[in-house]
Write a structure and sequence with these properties.
Blueprint (H helix, E strand, L loop, with lengths): L6 E5 L2 E7 L3 H18 L17 E3 L2 E7 L13 H15 L3 E2 L8 E4 L2 E4 L6 E2 L2 H8 L15 H11 L9 H21 L8 H20 L1
Antiparallel strand pairs: 1-2, 2-4, 3-4, 5-8, 6-7
Helix pairs in contact: 2-4, 3-5, 5-6
Length: about 220
């Protein structure tokens, strides 16, 4: 399987991630492995990195940076698949994550593996020390109008914040600014990805689409 950050393979009960040495993807793979170890040791709801036979969390093998994590059993959900109970569990789990002083960076429900009443965050490429309100804004952006607050008349965001508040706090007054920050980061990410050269292995339709998006990204970049 190929993700946006690396190549991902399963090997027994492990997930192996690898990327070519010297690339930004390799840096992300290595950083996420060490971050996972730090977070797991601090009690965060994340899988801990698995050391190699040489006792290393990050190995260089045949020009590749390679790391390993245990496969986390359970189910992930999209925004439109959440129930109120799942949303509360999502909020409680994110609050536990924030107790370590880190933010996840991409705390969507499809990065939360749920097994009964146990939940574990995966995909730690963007995890770092930061402001919890940024994670909250990112998590709830599907229910948030541009520059505004999450629509708490909706059952799912209300349940999420209820779960979060059971072990943490929510500074709703700071959410609008955080949402604007999320919007800027999302646009910046689009500009970067859309203007990156097309992969020669892509099919013709993907290269044509990339050309259209690249042109649009260039126009947006000139305006910003």
């Amino acid at each position: 399987m190929r993700s946006s950050a690396s190549h991902v393979f399963t090997a027994g009960d492990l997930v192996l991630r690898m990327a070519p040495l010297g690339t930004p993807q390799a840096d992300a793979v290595a950083r996420s492995a060490t971050t996972a170890g730090t977070l797991a040791a601090a009690g965060a709801p994340v899988p801990s990195s698995v050391a190699s036979l040489q006792g290393l969390l990050v190995e260089e093998v045949d020009g590749l940076v390679v790391t390993a994590l245990p496969i986390v059993p359970g189910t992930t959900y999209d925004d439109d698949e959440l129930t109120a109970d799942l949303a509360r569990l999502w909020g409680r789990t994110l609050a536990r994550f924030h107790e370590t002083g880190f933010v996840h960076g991409d705390p969507e429900p499809d990065n939360l593996v749920v097994d009964d009443q146990t939940a574990t965050f995966v995909d730690l490429d963007d995890a770092e020390r930061g402001e919890p309100v940024d994670d909250l804004a990112f998590a709830l952006r599907a229910w948030t109008p541009p520059g505004g607050l999450p629509d708490l008349s909706e059952e799912i965001p209300a349940a999420f914040l209820t779960g979060y508040q059971e072990t943490g706090h929510v500074d709703l007054a700071r959410l609008p600014a955080a949402v604007r920050g999320v919007e800027r980061r999302t646009l910046a990410s689009y500009l970067v990805h859309a203007t990156t050269p097309a992969d020669p292995d892509w099919p013709d339709w993907a290269r044509r689409l990339h050309s259209v998006l690249s042109k649009r990204a260039t126009e947006l970049g000139a305006v910003l």
